[in-house]
């Protein structure tokens, strides 16, 4: 266990002179670097109670051990000591007295302090989604990574103070630390704090296990660290002799980690061979194996404890050499050897320690945010002298916000989400009945964007439903697709009968306009992924499905059944032209008649999607009729044997088909010009026009023979003509 720093003056001796001596000692350890902001913060905090001031200085002392800068130490003292009236000062006043960074850190710490109060003394055990959202909330609120480091230092000092507290207080503090603070320290790579936090967790949750493992360890932590340093010095000398440039670091395994590994491997401490470990980082793979030779030459290899993850990487592409040996003084020693590239991947790539230890799924943006934070901590001095923090803020605009329910549960929402999105995230019924909201106790509008760390309370009525205005994008009520879908679903359910009637009428009108056969709605509904025909009609009525889409799917379904199933003769498509009809080869498939040419019947003018049938003529190939053509229905019995199956080709056709369009409208000047303009805009050729006026009723009837590319274009033209002033009816003539 790491103990509190001996530099810090005792609480009873805490006066101006003692504080000054402490600051001078910190400055000497920093090579004489002045700590002007820390000195100013301590002077302002001198009036507070000694216990409070001592706690503030203790946290600053922890931050000094982590080599944090003057601004961080000053912010920690100002936050914890809370000089009278100082934290109530405006941010611009704090910025003028200290710096903008200190003012920003104090603002973030104040927000996070409100979050901490909401969870003090609560167990978060067994609520992994909630605790993960809480961790992410803290990292989202803290735009400056130094804020998170201050929080972790405060937590470490508090755990040190709890050594004499009652067991229940210790247990609750350990649970919260295990779920929240230790994972944060792990992700940010602040190992010195992480190890001590975890040791306190085990000490307070499993005191008997903690004491047993502590007694089993050979020597105090300081002695084990000295042992590691001796091993490092020996390996450095060996590498220098061979001309290998190596970076070597080591650490004694802490008690919590030993306990976890013992449980995972189901063994006692004698079966753990990495209680003492060093890591060697070199330039090339060849040098990795050379260093491995040095290690096995110096010390005896432990059988079964060698893993070559360079030749056989792990599933997350982690690569390294792992070996365990009997080191100096006959103590087990683990050695890891890797290149700089492998080390970078292990620390910051998908193989990052925290990612696989915590079994988190991929989240590229969140991991990139963490990498920036870790980069700052590794390059503190260079980052402090640059605009690192400002670049971080501009580049990492949060994509999510994390807010609380009144019960303290954390809800994750996309950035820009509103209280109404929050209500639907709680439950659909809560969203439907929402009529207002409070944020941190204040009533706000339902369109206000939420910020991370706030507590949202939804105000509901006993009965009611959503407003259609909520679906309007420009009104800004809803940000999340989940909430919008719930609102749409509610309206679909409420208006089902109305939509059913509207859809039925719309489809009937489209069928009549296009001159189509009545379909089997059950069969058509399945094509559109609806269980029954009424659901399809309701979808048409609500606007989810167009009646034109449904109508266009009819004809492909209808096929004459009187002929046996034989191979279809598919003709090659003809270029779009006004050539002779006998050369049409693109659109129709004829059944069992070889390479006969065909023409479209002039009596019924079939169009793709119409059910069709072929009639074998004498000397003129095949004439293609609509299946319900009066001419076909009136054929003499002896000629019916010449009917053959015909169907529209599955290939995309480029033909033009003549159709007759009937228009009834009020007789007015310019009507024919307006209809002609529609044909021109839609690139529809008019083959003929016939008109008749009824002076008594002031009506005009038109019959246009036009060429269309298919049912879709025909439907579009009919729609546009129907929207003209004074047009009373428009339909296809069949």
Features:
single chain, alpha+beta, Hypothetical protein af1432, Beta Polymerase, domain 2, Ubiquitin-like (UB roll), 6 domains, 6-stranded mixed beta sheet, 29 helices, 16% strand
Describe this structure as you would to a colleague.
The chain is of the alpha+beta class and 734 residues long. The chain folds into 6 domains: 11-205, Hypothetical protein af1432 (Orthogonal Bundle), CATH 1.10.3210; 221-361, Beta Polymerase, domain 2 (2-Layer Sandwich); 400-494, Beta-grasp domain (Ubiquitin-like (UB roll), Roll), CATH 3.10.20; 496-557, no CATH class; 568-648, no CATH class; 657-733, ACT domain (Alpha-Beta Plaits), CATH 3.30.70.260. Strands 1, 2, 3, 4, 5 and 6 form a 6-stranded mixed β-sheet that branches. It has a 6-stranded mixed β-sheet with strand order 12-13-17-15-16-14, with no helix packed on it. A 4-stranded antiparallel β-sheet has the order 19-20-18-21. α11 crosses α13 (255-265). The model is unreliable at 120-126, 349-362, 382-386, 392-396 and 556-586 (pLDDT under 50).
User: What fraction strand?
Assistant: 15-25%
Mind telling me the CATH superfamily name of the largest domain?
A: Hypothetical protein af1432
| CATH hierarchy class name of the largest domain | Mainly Alpha
CATH architecture descriptor of the largest domain:
Orthogonal Bundle
Major beta sheet summary: 6 strands, mixed
State the distance separating the first and last CA atoms: 93 Å
Which regions have little confidence, pLDDT < 50, spanning 5+ residues? 120-126, 349-362, 382-386, 392-396, 556-586
């Amino acid at each position: 266990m790491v103990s509190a720093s001996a530099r810090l003056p005792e609480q009873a001796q805490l006066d101006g002179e003692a504080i000054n001596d402490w600051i001078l000692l910190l400055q000497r350890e920093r090579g004489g670097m002045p700590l002007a902001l820390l000195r100013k913060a301590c002077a302002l905090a001198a009036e507070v109670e000694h216990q409070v001031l001592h706690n503030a200085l203790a946290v600053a002392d922890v931050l000094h051990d982590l080599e944090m800068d003057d601004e961080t130490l000053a912010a920690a003292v100002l936050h914890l000591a809370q000089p009278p009236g100082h934290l109530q000062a405006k941010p611009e006043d704090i910025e003028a007295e200290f710096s903008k960074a200190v003012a920003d850190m104090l603002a973030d710490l104040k927000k996070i302090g409100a979050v901490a109060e909401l969870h003090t003394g609560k167990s978060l055990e067994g609520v992994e989604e909630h605790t993960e959202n809480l961790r992410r909330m803290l990292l989202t609120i803290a735009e400056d990574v130094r804020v998170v480091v201050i929080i972790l230092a405060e937590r470490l000092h508090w755990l040190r103070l709890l050594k004499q507290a009652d067991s229940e207080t210790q247990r609750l503090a350990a649970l919260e630390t295990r779920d929240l603070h230790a994972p944060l320290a792990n992700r940010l790579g602040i190992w010195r704090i992480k190890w001590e936090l975890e040791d306190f967790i085990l000490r307070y949750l499993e005191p008997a296990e903690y004491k047993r493992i502590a007694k089993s360890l050979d020597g105090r932590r300081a002695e084990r660290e000295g042992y590691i340093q001796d091993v490092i010095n020996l390996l450095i000398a060996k590498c220098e002799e061979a001309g290998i440039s190596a970076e070597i670091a080591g650490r004694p395994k802490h008690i919590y980690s030993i306990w976890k590994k013992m449980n995972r491997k189901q063994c006692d401490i004698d079966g753990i061979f990495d209680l003492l470990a060093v890591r060697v980082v070199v330039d090339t793979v060849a040098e990795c194996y050379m260093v491995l030779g040095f290690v096995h030459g110096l010390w005896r290899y432990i059988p079964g404890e060698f893993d070559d993850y360079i030749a056989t990487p792990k599933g997350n592409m982690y690569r390294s050499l792992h070996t365990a040996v009997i080191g100096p003084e006959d103590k087990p020693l683990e050695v890891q050897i890797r290149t700089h590239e492998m080390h970078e991947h292990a620390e910051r790539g998908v193989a990052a320690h925290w990612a696989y230890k915590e079994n988190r799924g991929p989240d590229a943006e969140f991991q990139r945010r963490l990498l920036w934070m870790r980069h700052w901590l590794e390059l503190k001095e260079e980052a402090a002298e640059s605009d690192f923090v400002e670049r971080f803020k501009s580049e990492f605009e949060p994509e999510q916000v994390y807010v609380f329910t009144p019960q303290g549960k954390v809800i994750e929402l996309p950035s820009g989400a509103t209280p109404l999105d929050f209500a639907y995230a709680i439950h659909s019924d809560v969203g439907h009945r929402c009529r207002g909201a409070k944020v941190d106790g204040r009533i706000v509008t339902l369109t206000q964007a939420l910020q991370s760390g706030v507590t949202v309370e939804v105000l509901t009525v006993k009965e009611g439903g959503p407003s259609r205005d909520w679906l309007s994008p420009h009104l800004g009520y809803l940000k999340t697709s989940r909430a919008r879908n719930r609102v749409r679903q509610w309206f679909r359910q409420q208006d089902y009968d109305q939509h059913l009637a509207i859809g039925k009428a719309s489809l009937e009108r489209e069928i009549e306009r296009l001159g189509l056969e009545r379909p089997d709605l059950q069969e058509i509904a399945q094509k559109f992924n609806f269980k029954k025909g009424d659901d399809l009609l309701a979808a048409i009525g609500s606007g989810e499905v167009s009646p034109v889409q449904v109508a266009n799917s009819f004809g492909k379904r209808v096929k004459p059944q009187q002929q046996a199933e034989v191979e279809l003769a598919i003709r090659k498509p003809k270029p779009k032209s006004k050539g002779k009809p006998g050369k049409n080869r693109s659109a129709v498939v004829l059944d069992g008649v070889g390479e006969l040419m065909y023409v479209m019947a002039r009596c019924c003018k079939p169009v793709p999607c119409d059910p069709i049938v072929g009639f074998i003529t004498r000397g003129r190939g095949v004439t293609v009729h609509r299946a319900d053509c009066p001419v076909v229905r009136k054929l003499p019995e002896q000629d019916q044997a010449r009917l053959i199956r015909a169907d529209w080709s599955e290939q995309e056709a480029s033909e033009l088909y003549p159709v007759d369009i009937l228009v009834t409208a009020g007789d007015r000047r310019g009507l024919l010009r307006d209809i002609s303009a529609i044909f021109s805009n839609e690139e529809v050729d008019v083959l003929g026009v016939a008109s008749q006026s009824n002076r008594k009723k002031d009506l005009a009837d038109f019959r246009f023979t036009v060429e269309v590319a298919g049912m879709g274009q025909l439907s579009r033209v009919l729609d546009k003509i129907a929207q003209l002033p004074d047009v009373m009816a428009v339909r296809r003539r069949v």
